[in-house]
């Protein structure tokens, strides 16, 4: 029954799409087939980020002499994915090689771990998460990493509530997370003048952090 259902789903997808601007379905599509089509799309979506990121990493390392600095612009035209997102995908795949990835962990969870600068700490966090029976939300994982990047440790609900009460509306984590996200996407494509401007703009912030 399962094999027959799968064959029907494959045949439906082949005959009816997806096309360039949508997909049509047969008039009397059984619920089970409709549900399995959705599951297959879900699996394809999960794999897409890894596949596209690895494609970019491979191209950047294999064809350095043939790919200009406009590689990401070309990739943007070819895939329809914006340049910033392509950079983010490639960064995750470059920082976490295939043999270090955790099968039951989402790409977004890997992306949070990829934000850790130290390679050894990244892999320690991945091993820590691999041993968990249930995975934390992406929000909790990001916050935990920002609090303890070198030592894998998930923030507890009590600690989270204490942080909310302590910082209230002035909680810096949200703003810092947004800043880091923007910088990770834009730094790789900045020219020298833009980098110098960034250094000047963040001089006060760096002085403040050095004083801690």
Order of helices and strands: HHHHHHHHHHH
Distance between the termini: 64 Å
Number of strands: 0
Number of domains: 2
Radius of gyration, rounded?
22 Å
Residue runs with pLDDT of under 50 for 5 or more positions: none
Helix content: 55-70%
Whole-number mean pLDDT:
81
The DSSP helix count reads 11
Q: Report the major sheet.
A: none
Shape annotation: globular
Strand fraction band? under 5%
Judged by helices, strands and strand pairing, the structural class is mainly alpha
Would you give an account of this structure?
Helix 4 packs across helix 5 (107-114). With 212 residues, this protein is an all-alpha fold. The protein is globular. The protein folds into two domains: 1-14 and 31-95, no CATH class; 115-191, no CATH class. The protein has helices spanning 2-16, 31-62, 71-79, 83-95, 107-114, 119-130, 138-147, 157-167, 172-186, 192-201, 203-210.
Layout of helices and strands:
Elements (H helix, E strand, L loop, with lengths): L1 H15 L14 H32 L8 H9 L3 H13 L11 H8 L4 H12 L7 H10 L9 H11 L4 H15 L5 H10 L1 H8 L2
Helix pairs in contact: 1-2, 2-4, 4-5, 5-7
Question: Quick gist of this model?
Answer:
The protein has 212 residues and is mostly helical. It is built from eleven helices and no strands.
Question: Can you tag this structure with a few keywords?
Answer:
single chain; 212 residues; mainly alpha; 2 domains
